[in-house]
Amino acid sequence: MISMNKVFADLPVTIFEAMSQAARDNNAINLGQGFPDDPGPEDIRRAAADASVNGYNQYPSMMGIPELRQAIASHYGRWHGLNLDPMTEVMVTSGGTEALTSAILAVVQPGDEVIVFQPVYDSYLPIIRQAGGIPRLLRLEPPHWRLNEEMLRSAFNHKTKAVLFNNPLNPAAVVYPREDLELLARFCQEFDSVAICDEVWEHVVFDGREHIPLITIPGMRDRTIKVGSAGKIFSLTGWKIGFVCAAPPLLRVAAKVHQFLTFTTAPNLQAAVAYGLNKPDDYFLDMRKDMARSRDRLTSGLESLGFPVLKSQGTYFLTVDLSPLGLNETDAEFCWRIVQDYKVAAIPVSAFYEQDAVTSVVRFCFAKKDSTLDTALERLSDAIHRRKR
């Protein structure tokens, strides 16, 4: 029998694909996987169509078309006061996952330890292991999912090459405050570690909160790789346009990895994203208001049914902690039950843990039309009470 790469051969089907397939099999409303149920901003889509018909469709620059790299640098300068050289500190990738893969493979060598916070997005650990790295898992807990000094002191050591940090945090919908970022920055500097920052949800923040990129914290400019995603910023998840921003010594190596992963990315989509990033600030603020309205609609509906909702500070998601309900089932069992019996798909947060999982929290996606959310709430109206009888 042919021996395959165990890092990947032994992986299960991702929970996102499993629950989306269950939604299709059961004709259920999919509040599991994080994508909107509309086509996305029309003017940005038209910009992509125009660039495809009237523009250049051969290989663009490996690093990304100059217009987009300049737009990324200008955008982060405007929003975060981050001064980036678009030619030496910005790279375009085929989505955020490829950006993260390029960053991890650029930094991590065999035997290096990488600190990862659970709940953890499913692509992180296989890529760390493929690079020969050793994940050091730290457990975040509801309802606040915050960092603390004791936690970090237990994991950072002389072997800590990198820390992989997701902010805003999917699935817990937390936007980390400056004090947590300064704490993490202090440990990165003390142990000479690189921070790989998954910040794809940076624009999807609510209630006047501000996303603070770790790269802007004092002492982190030259030891942070910042990852962004146009798919999340513009609700165009299928476009797969990612950004990598880092000081030249870090970006040069990440670019060499990118060269042998996807090499380049569709130029018409890059042109349209450049157009989008140059839109006025009100566009992004209005997007947040619209998303917050959908969040509030699903939150109030779930709370009226008796679900204990944890406040969503950002992302497309809100979470429910089932533990006070006495349902005598795990989050995974609850999700499989409601997709089969109530025709609504959600994601168990335990799937984001490799060890010592939190097993009582369920994630719902609210980036949907009002009619979709309302129908899902109607279907869930008896999901708690019937189970408790």
From TrEMBL:
Cross-referenced Gene3D superfamilies: Aspartate Aminotransferase, domain 1, Type I PLP-dependent aspartate aminotransferase-like (Major domain)
Superkingdom per UniProt: Bacteria
Essential cofactor(s): pyridoxal 5'-phosphate
InterPro entries in UniProt: Aminotransferase_I/II_large, Kynurenine-oxoglutarate_AT, PyrdxlP-dep_Trfase, PyrdxlP-dep_Trfase_major, PyrdxlP-dep_Trfase_small
Keywords, in A-Z order: Aminotransferase, Pyridoxal phosphate, Transferase
Domain Aminotransferase class I/classII large: 28-380
GO molecular function: transaminase activity
Family annotation (Pfam families): Aminotran_1_2 (PF00155)
The protein's name: Aminotransferase
Taxonomic lineage: Bacteria, Pseudomonadati, Pseudomonadota, Alphaproteobacteria, Hyphomicrobiales
